[in-house]
Each structure stands twice: as C-alpha cells, then as structure tokens.
Amino acid sequence: MSVDLSVVVPAYNEEDRLGPTLDAICAHLRGEPGRWGEWELIVVDDGSTDGTAKIAKDASAEEPRIQIVSGDGNHGKGSALRLGVLASYGRRVLITDADLATPIEELDRLDKQLAAEDSAAAIGSRAHPDSRIEVHQRRSREWLGRMGNRLIRAVAVPGIHDTQCGFKLFDGDKARAAFADSRLDGWGIDVEILRFFRREGWPVTEVPVRWSHQAGSKVRPLDYGRVLLELVRLRARAVRPVDILVTGLFLLASVLLYKGLWADLDRGYLADAGSDQNQWEWFFAVTADNVAHLRNPLFTTLQGYPDGVNLMANTVMLGLSVPLTPLTLLFGPTVTWALVLTLGLTATATAWYWLIARRLTTNRWAAAIGGAFAAFAPPMISHGNAHPNFLVLFMIPVIVDRALRLCEGRNVVRDGVLLGLFATYQIFLGEEPLLLAAMGMLLFALSYGLVRRDVARAATRPLLRGLAVAAAVCLPLVAFPLGWQFFGPQSYTSVLHGDNMGNSPLAFLEFAGRSLMGSDEGADPLAFNRTEQNAFYGWPLVALAAAIVVRLWRVALVKALAFTGVAAAFLSLGPKFRIPYTDIVLTGPWRALAHQPLFESVIESRVALICAPVLGVLIALAVDRLLVTRERVHRAVGLAAVAAALVPVLPTPYPVRERAEIPAFVTEGMYSAYLSEGESVVTVPLPSPGSAEALHWQSATGLGFPVAGGYFNGPWGPDRMGIYGATPRHTSNLLNDVRGSGRVPVIGPNWQAQARGDLAAWRAGVVVLAPQYNDAALYATVEKLLGQPGKRVGGVWVWDVGAERMRG
C-alpha cells in the first residue's frame, strides 16, 4: 500500500471536538490532492467512555481514508500514539492533538521544512521567536509549562525548546522505528521519541506555528511533573544490562582490593598509608564537625594549635566531605574513608567506561577493559593507599566529554555553563588532578589539531567561546574559597617537595609493588614512597602500546594519544634525569614549568598519571577492532597479547595492619581535667607526617581537644613556603631525634628554657607520652626538660603544664 501522508490523531473522550477536527483535516488534505497525494487519517480511540468511538465510525463511513484503531482501555497519549503510528503506512507521518490547538494549515510549514532541510522530523514549536500564540493560557499555567519544559530540556533533550507541542511531522519509516522502540504510555512519549531521533543522529528541526489554547485541554500543569517521572524511567531504560554488569564488576573489584580494611574498620589500617589514613579520617571528621556546628569549613585550630590549618589549602575534598557529613557523624570517619576509596574507585572506572563507550568503541566490553585500566592502573592503585583525591576522578571523564561537546558547537552556552559547574566541583575534589587533566587535554588538543587541522579550525571558535563561558561560571563560584586558600590564614606560596621527585625512565618498565608481578624490592628504589609509584606500567604493557600505535598509526586519534602519552612521560621525569645505567644527566622538559605558578607545587612524577587513560583508550581501541575482525587467528593472538600485557599489572588487595589502641586517657575524657579554655594537648613527640596517631585520637573521640603540631600543609619561614606539618620548633625537633635514636641528650638550663618557651607558644595544657618505640628515652628526656616526673594516668604519662595551674 503506497501512502504519502499519514495523520495520527489520539482521542480520549473527545466527542465534542473530534468531529470538527476530522472535518478540518480532511478538507485541508482534499484541497490540494496533488500536493498531499495518497493519505490516510488514523483515529486512535484510547478507551473513551463517551461517544468518541461513534463519531469516528460515522466519519469513517463517509471518508474511507479515515481508519480507526482502538486500544483495550485508557493507557495514555503515549500508548495511543504508538498504536496509531505503528498502524500507519505513510512516507510522512503527522501527529496532531484532537483539539487542533495548532491548526491543520500549519502542516504546510512543517512539510516545507522537512523537505528543505532534509530533516527527519519537523516539530511545531510555541517557543520559537516567530511563533504566534493567538489564545494564551492563564499566566500561572504558562509559567508552569515553561518551567516544566526547561526541566525536560535540561534532563532529556537539550537544544529543543518545545518538546510538548502536539503537532509533529516525521519521516514515516523513522517514526515507526522510534515508536516501535518506545515504552512510555503517558505525556513523556514526545521526549522519548525525540531522544530516539537524537540518539540515531536524525536531524530534528523546530518550526514556528500558530497555536491557541483550547478550553477543556487534558494537559494539566502537574502533567509536566509526570513527564519528568516518566523521564526517570526513560533514563533507567537507557542503561543497558551490560552497563549494570560492568559497574557491578568494578564495584566487586574495588571491594576485593579493600577487603582487609572493610573486614575490621575499628582496628584496620592500610599498611602502606603512612600517616595519611589518620590525616584523611581527621579531614572527614573536622569537616563534618564544622558543618554540624555551622563553622567555617575552610579553617580549623584543632591541629597546628594555636595558628590552625587552612583547610582549603589542604586536600580535604570538600566536594565529598561536606555532603558525606551525615555519614561521618553517624558511623565515624573510618567508614567514610573506606567508602570514599571503594566507591570512588568504582565511580572512576565507570566514568571512563562511559566516556570510551560513548565516543570511541562499539563494543562495550572493549570499553570496559579500557575504563578498568584507566582507573585500576598501577599508579592509581598506588595512590589508593592514601590519596583519595587522586583516586576519585570520576569528574575528569565528564569534563573531557563536555569539552568535546564544546568542540562540536551544538549548544556552546549550555555546554560552557555545565563545564564551568563541573570544573568547580572538581576543584572541591582535587585541584592538582584537575591541573594534570588540563595538561593532558591540552597536549591531546595540540597534537590532534596538528593531525586534523580541518577539525581544529572548525572546533576552535566554539571551544574558545565555551571555555570563556565556563570561566565566567566557575571563577565567581570559586573566587572566595581560592582567595582563602592563597591569601587566607595559614596560606602558603608553594609546597616544598625537595629534589628528585621525577620518575626514573626505568619506572615505566618496572612493575609496581602492588601489581601481580611486582615487588617492593623492584619498585621502592625507583619511587619517593609507596603512595607515589606514579608510573610502573610494566615493560609488556609499554611494548603492547607501542605495537598498537604502529598498527593503528593511520588513525588520527591514535597519533594524538601517542604524542600525549609520550609527552606526559617525559614531563614526569622532572627538571633533570639520569639515563639508566650511566652517569649521564640530562635536562628534562619539566624545567620550564618547575617554577611557574601552580606547577611549582606539583610533584612532577605524578604527570605520568596522564598515561593511564591514554593507555586505557589505546587498549580499548585495539580490543574493539580485534573483536570484530573476521580472522580468528589474528583475534586470538591479539587478545592473548593484550591479556599477557595486562595480567602482570593486575592489582592485588591492599595489605592491612592493626592500628594502635587509643589510650583510656583520651577515650574516657581524662584529658579534660588538664585543659583550660584555649589550651592544647602536646603529644610526645608532636604529631607530624612521620607519626600522626594524635589525629586518630581526635577524630575517633569527637574532636574534644586541639593538638600542637600536626600533619597538614602549612606555611614556613618569611617566604611562607609550604611544608608538611606545623612550623618546627627546637623542642619538637629534639623529641623527634630522641624517638628516632633512642638516646637521651644532655639537658641543661638552655634546653629547659627553650621547652618552656615552646610550650607557651603551643599554649600547652598537658604533655602526653603514650607507649611507643623508644618511649623510655622519651620519658627521660621530657622529665629533664620539664624538671618533674610524669604521672601515669589512663595508660599514658602526663605532665600538667597549664600556665594558670602551674602558677597556682
């Protein structure tokens, strides 16, 4: 059956309006038989309980081209349209409401647009500047409608300003494919169909129309809310079963890695975390405490007393620690710490999987392998010991995707606004990872632009415009926090990391300590510490990446990825590096950046983290091609090579040790008898990056007292150079030396005077010595410094040094 145009009219209890509507449609189509050709008019009775069905039958008896389709009850507009469109045969399909709020004469505009623009759909739009609203709804109803439409647009079909106008003309075959795929029965069907067209890449054009509000309309303001609820179902349906399975596998892998920590949250401590677990639990606890008591979340004096800590200048991850405040208050900071590590790793892998599947591969399992490597790569696992700010990177793929959308230039303002909001949130998750991501994106953009200059020319203008919009959104939001970070109390200029923080070239070929084929003996000499094994991809994987690049060299994306990875690897070598097995030292490219603002605080070996997603994408591209090749031998050999490169770097579970018990002096609140207002606890030795058990005492017992010293980033010296820990004093240095050596030095009046001055500077109320390594030597030293023996209270030695009590 050859039909040029099908008109579908859904009807539910429309006996008062259906007759005139059918007469008008038939008259218009009969008026130009040469233009509309063979046509059919399909009335879908959606379970009407009035005379709608009789009117339709009477009209059909007079005009054989009117067809009647009846459902088995009232299911909604979506169900009715689906029945009608799937029953149609037309080369074009028009759907229109039974009230003809948009006159049938507007079909001429839609038809011209559909032909002229080579669109797949031309839809009536009341929001178009050239539209004419002849009869308005009530103002409140119009306002609700506009707000609902904006929400729908933001959630489902960005760029389409009026999804709900009931006058749409489609290419017939495409319409039947879209409605056959649809599932919604209510008003959300319009959005579902338009999303299908978008997903398939079929152009949709909005056309200005005349529109008049019709009394008795069945669309109510609250129906926009119902549409949004249906869109939630639509979004859920868009998630494929394989996506759920892949995310579940990522979660399982994360749980297995941290199983030792989860097995004993009360006493478990990640063995390679150094003092960082204590520090991070303290960060979560103090943020929750600040939020709960409506205090400034950017500052505290609970550490580094009395000067305090600039929390914005430390990696407190306010983007997570603030929203997780209820969890921290209810279950404690250790639960928050474990949850952030486990779910953060899962979310990061899922985000990379989503980006790769969305833009680069056709096979979801290829994307899963690439996403898994980007998140579970050896340097990521190394940071998983102690640095959640480098593990929780789920926003980076989202930012990359939004930047790519800007290059497409479809909706520069919207994408720029979202990019600005995403960047703002990432700043509150981790500034250094954002800087490294920006470096990687810049390296990729420059290299891809050189390879595909045509693409670069087309993308430059919308990208720059979008970045300007993003900056206009982001900068006002972060101005105050960043101002506090760089100029507020306890701010600093740059972090003093020391020399030799770059990677050795051998670090890229060696296996990490926590990789399946790795060992601490091979990795430790090449890394600053076990949380900074920032390369260690292993020689098989490096060889595989080189082979993939050679094999796919003609692909512009592969060339850009290769340049990005190699450039990041060279930058990570630092200002200078030694050629392995020689005495030859060369200047590294990082030297040009080493003393520049922001870059001067970066540990340069971390630049090699950029290589993780680069390698992940290369692996995904290779696997994607191998899975579709018809040569079985090539497929088997290729997949075996990928497996041989990945298996050696599979991560092993994080080892856990038992943490020391908190003394009863702290858990039972005995310290309160020794502290007056404004006084601190001075532990022996003072908490520092090397030993920060006092932070655990605080975070596990409700932050009831401040401590002198601490483990944080703060200023030191007249230049306010950033260091790890509080500004050292003579007494704190002395106590650290005694703990390390076990030798009691000669203590004279000068040392005693210095100790009194340092205790006054710390506003000390009590000095506490807990059981520890070389505690006998520490006790003897403190006894000589203070000129009095300690008292055994609650499992610790204490010295009451409160100024007022000593005077008394």
TrEMBL record:
DNA repair is among the record's keywords: no
Associated pathway: Protein modification; protein glycosylation
Catalytic activity reported: a di-trans,poly-cis-dolichyl phosphate + UDP-alpha-D-glucose = a di-trans,poly-cis-dolichyl beta-D-glucosyl phosphate + UDP
Keywords: Endoplasmic reticulum, Glycosyltransferase, Membrane, Signal-anchor, Transferase, Transmembrane, Transmembrane helix
Claim: Iron-sulfur is one of the keywords in the record: no
The protein's enzyme class: transferase
Entry's family note: Belongs to the glycosyltransferase 2 family.
Full protein name: dolichyl-phosphate beta-glucosyltransferase
Organism annotation: Streptomyces maoxianensis
